[in-house]
Amino acid sequence: MWGVLVLSAAANAITSALGVNLVLSTVFGVVTLASGIALVANYRTHR
């Protein structure tokens, strides 16, 4: 899950910086946000 977070955050930063299609950048942002939420939820249930 950490890999998904890192890769999607990097892809989001690259697509935003290069001005690529807004929809693609938004998709990467949503994936980043979802993986971050999943990591926090997993941490809270297993601590």
Walkthrough of the structure:
This protein has one domain (2-45). The model has no long low-confidence stretch (mean pLDDT 94). Helix content is 87%, strand content 0%. The protein starts with a helix and ends with a helix. It contains two helices and no strands. The protein has 47 residues and is mostly helical.
The biggest beta sheet reads: none
Structural class: mainly alpha
**Rg calc:** 12 Å
- Count structural domains: 1
Question: How large a portion of the residues is in β-strands, by DSSP E?
Answer: under 5%
Report how far apart the termini are. 17 Å
Uncertain regions: pLDDT < 50 for 5+ in a row? none
Percent range for helical residues?
over 70%
Q: Which helices and strands appear, and what pairs or packs with what?
A:
Layout: H1 2-18, H2 22-45
Helix pairs in contact: 1-2
Quick recap:
This protein has 47 residues and is mainly α.
For this entry, give a set of tags.
elongated; 47 residues; mainly alpha; 2 helices
